[in-house]
Design brief:
Blueprint lengths: L3 H11 L5 E5 L12 E2 L9 E2 L3 E4 L13 E9 L13 E5 L11 E4 L3 E4 L2 E4 L9 E2 L10 E3 L7 H9 L4 E5 L3 E7 L3 E2 L10 E2 L1 H12 L3 E8 L3 H10 L5 E5 L10 H8 L1 E5 L3 E2 L5 E5 L2 E6 L3 H19 L9 E6 L3 E2 L5 E11 L2 E6 L9 H4 L3 E5 L5 E2 L4 E6 L13
Parallel strand pairs: 5-6, 13-16, 13-17, 14-15, 17-21, 19-24, 22-25
Antiparallel strand pairs: 1-12, 2-11, 3-10, 4-6, 4-7, 5-9, 8-9, 18-20, 20-21, 22-28, 23-27, 24-25, 24-26, 26-28
Helix pairs in contact: 1-6, 3-6, 4-5
This protein binds adenosine monophosphate and magnesium ion (MG).
The site of magnesium ion has 6 residues, from loops.
């Protein structure tokens, strides 16, 4: 039996980032950029107006006030998206809309609120400083500038930036295809008949959802019977994937053949990790594919996925930050435990005035899926301790992507 830390190290040493693929930018969301992006253009491409108003020469407005307006001659209208045809001379101005390029000769914008139109003239009520309300060429992005770096997570802002650079296709790190195989004679699919001692293979669904949450794709292989033949056949059907996840059949029961079958098809690196839940867990390789033989109990399967499979998937997809955020929180109850095992308790973390507290979700049996449903975090109690007392600070792994969200705006 190896420690959680050791097991995690072995998993992460084995896997490495996948290759690069080219995707349209909207499909690239949540993936890792596989190339540096240098801009071939300046943004904005030219000096342009930040206001609806008048393009003029700042020096022409000297001394202007409400009482003593300066009067300029309006020589043209420049809507956004159209180029000026006339150059602005001394004593002249062009009506201009937000985003339109400044006409030749002008150096500043005066917002329309500080003017009054009078036929083909405009009265200017304030002095303008040179460059006022001008968005300068290249102030966002300069031509030739490296705007995004290889390894960056692609979020909506990066997608907007890529679009403004005219990049509809972009290189990204591939995410793994992950096969999910459930094992057990007692399992039926979601709409199967559960009247004769069968249960729904909920792991097929919770694991698929966890994979999707990592941004990876799922290959659903279904349910294998507890026979070596069926397991072998179904494992072979997983070989198209980059990672194979099985659940169940990896313990010491009379029908737990998963370990044997993996050993005959590939190689087991480790089996059994000093943790609760999730002790029976096999990691190894099937040819060039990585295999996680997760325990069958629904909570054990999900918790072991969180600790080992999720970081592996994220590393393969090129992420730098492959671990969930952690927070220190004060225990609201006392928990006794066995030394020598790392505990992952399903918990509810709360924040009040910047202080975090945490309590368990109640019954912690590894078959109690409700303990996951109620949880927004896992409380991690390290191997060496035999008790966590009420008030003790413990490390909490935040699971809920909505953690910190609130029903009111908070401002
Ligand atoms: P095993 O590790 O195969 O002995 O399974 C341990 C427990 O988890 C048993 O009670 C199984 O019925 C249950 N189990 C195994 N696989 C699944 C699954 N895919 N979905 C839900 N429960 C499962
Ligand atoms: Mg089983």
């Amino acid at each position: 039996m190896i420690t959680v830390k050791n097991a995690l190290e072995r998993v992460l040493e084995s896997v490495s980032p996948l290759g690069i693929e080219r995707l349209d930018i909207l499909s690239a969301q949540g993936k890792i950029l596989g190339e540096d992006i240098c801009s071939q253009r300046s943004i904005p491409p030219k000096d342009n107006s930040a206001m609806d108003g008048y393009a003029l020469r700042a020096e022409d407005t000297r001394g202007a006030s409400r009482e003593n307006p300066v009067v300029l001659r309006v020589i043209e209208d420049i809507p956004a998206g159209y180029l000026a045809r006339k150059s602005v001379g001394r004593g002249e101005a062009s009506r201009i809309m937000t985003g339109a390029f400044l006409p030749e000769g002008s150096d500043s914008i005066l917002r329309v609120e500080d003017t009054e139109k009078d036929g083909d003239r405009v009265k200017i009520f304030v002095e303008v400083s040179k460059g006022q309300d001008v968005r300068f060429c290249g102030e966002d992005v300069k031509e030739g500038e490296k705007v995004l770096t290889k390894g960056t997570l692609i979020r909506p802002a990066e997608i907007g930036m890529l679009a403004s650079l005219g990049r509809s296709i972009v290189s990204v790190r591939q995410s793994p295809l992950v096969a999910v195989l459930s094992t057990g004679d007692e399992l039926v699919d979601i709409d199967g008949d559960v009247s004769q001692g069968k249960i729904v293979s909920s792991n097929s669904y919770s694991l698929a959802a966890q994979i999707a949450e990592c941004g990876a794709s799922v290959l659903q292989v279904g349910i294998a019977k507890d026979t070596r033949e069926d397991l072998r056949e179904k494992f072979e059907a997983c070989m198209r994937a980059d990672i194979v996840i099985s659940s169940g059949g990896v313990s010491v029961g009379d029908y737990d053949f998963v370990k044997d079958v993996i050993s005959s098809l590939g190689a087991i690196d480790f089996w059994r990790v000093a943790m609760r839940p999730g002790r029976p867990l096999a990691f190894g390789k099937l040819g060039s594919k990585f295999l996680f033989g997760l325990p069958g109990n629904p909570v054990s399967a999900m918790v072991s996925f969180e600790q080992f499979v999720r970081p592996a998937i994220l590393k393969m997809a090129g992420h730098r930050n492959i671990f969930r955020g952690t927070i220190r929180a004060a225990m609201q109850q006392t928990i006794k435990k066995n030394t020598g095992l790392t505990y992952f308790l399903r918990g509810i973390i709360n924040e009040e005035d910047g202080r975090y507290t945490v309590r368990t979700t109640g019954e912690q049996g590894s078959g109690i899926l409700k303990s996951m449903v109620l949880a927004n975090c896992l409380i991690i109690l390290p191997e060496e301790i035999s008790v966590a007392n009420e008030g003790d600070e413990v490390l909490v792994q935040v699971l809920d992507p909505g953690f910190g969200m609130r029903p009111d705006p908070g401002f």
